[in-house]
Amino acid sequence: xxxRYQSLAQNPIxxxxxxxxxxxxxxxxxxxxxxxxxxxxxxxxxxxxxxTLGKKLNATLKSSGIEAxxxxxxxxxxxxxxxxxxxxxxxxxxxxxxQFFTPAMRSLxxxxxxxxIGTLPEQAESETAAxxxxxxxxxxxxxxxxxxxxxSTANLVYAGQGTEDAxxxxxxxxxxxxxxxxxxxxxxxxxxxxxxxxxxxDPSKPLAGKVALITGASRGLGAAxxxxxxxxxxxxxxxxxxxxxxxLDALMSELGGTSIAEDITAEDAPQVIAKALKDAHGGVDIVxxxxxxxxxxxxxxxxxENWNLVIDISVGAPQRITAELLDQKLLRKGGRVIGISSxxxxxxxxxxxxxxxxxxxxxxxxxxxxxRVAKDGITVNAIAPGFIETDMVxxxxxxxxxxxxRLSSLSQGGQPIDVAEAIAWYANPGSSxxxxxxxxxxxxxxxxx
Length: 449
Fold this sequence. Notes:
Blueprint: H1 4-10, H2 12-21, E1 42-47, H3 54-63, E2 67-69, E3 78-84, H4 95-105, E4 108-119, H5 127-147, E5 153-159, H6 168-175, E6 185-189, E7 211-215, H7 220-231, E8 235-240, H8 245-255, E9 258-261, H9 269-281, E10 284-289, H10 304-327, E11 331-340, H11 343-347, H12 353-372, E12 379-385, H13 398-406, H14 416-427, E13 438-441
Parallel strand pairs: 1-2, 1-3, 3-4, 4-5, 5-6, 7-8, 7-10, 8-9, 10-11, 11-12, 12-13
């Protein structure tokens, strides 16, 4: 859906009004296009004394085709600022971060990226180090709110023990336009057992040879996910309810994929889905539990049948389907299970008790399952979208719609591709150290954690 306010704010008269009245001024966000370099510009790298990733960061970025330097030039603009904070062992050491970023922030280009890399606080070598590392979260979230006005983002990566060589896919995502609507987020590597990543023959097709099942795939977010994972080389299996079979078949024909027309709440749905995957592909590598509905009512007006339906589609059915795939050993080693949560599941939302409960349940599903399947090299994560410009937005009252768009550091709604790019990042073979995470794709919304 078109954001008319954003369009108005970009013309000369609109800019004058917005500036003089102090109104929200949503920047134009750069998004990645196929064939473009990951980063159109140079990344500046800094490090606190005692940090361990310096040389590896340079090598990692170089291998990804990203130009990186370690010395700032006053006259140059930088597309990314990366700071290795792993060596900060007490709060006094946090000053090294300030000393790097204060002059560098003046050199950050529009649609720039700020990334801080720390150590998981629970794995820090001392109490003082754990406290200092936890402080990085406040720094990154505050910095994100400072730089959002020019389309820039700030994110934190906690690298657990043994994950130093597993940063590539995450840095590629966070430094590139693929993460245009991801800001103020904390990504934790190494929360569960580490597994070796599958080798990638063609970096432009990291999912080549992988099979991806996407539920709710016929339209909206699901269709964007299907197209994006297909772009990255995956064979797509799309699933949606029988009523949307024509839309689903059309999309799968476009992508060379296969369709499953099935109600995931049906008693035999897990077995039907498992058989279809086994017959067509012998198994599955990526499962995206995207299907979901809303039946919004205040709690005092809620009907039990609507409550049950919302919960079952978002949480119950994904549990049953995943369990069946695991029981039949159809989810291959190194597989990915990805749930779709929501800001409503983190912060709650007036009139959405069923939806908020369901989407918080998705987070619980990730917390529990990620630990149980780690030994099999399977990762489990969730994306929590904020305000995304889908067809559902058209049904919102104007005031709520505008508030949803403006109440973020980027002052606008995201696009379905923003969610899809985050799914592709989780699905990447190089993301094998990422499990048990919930990352918001919300432009750093001003509500939620």
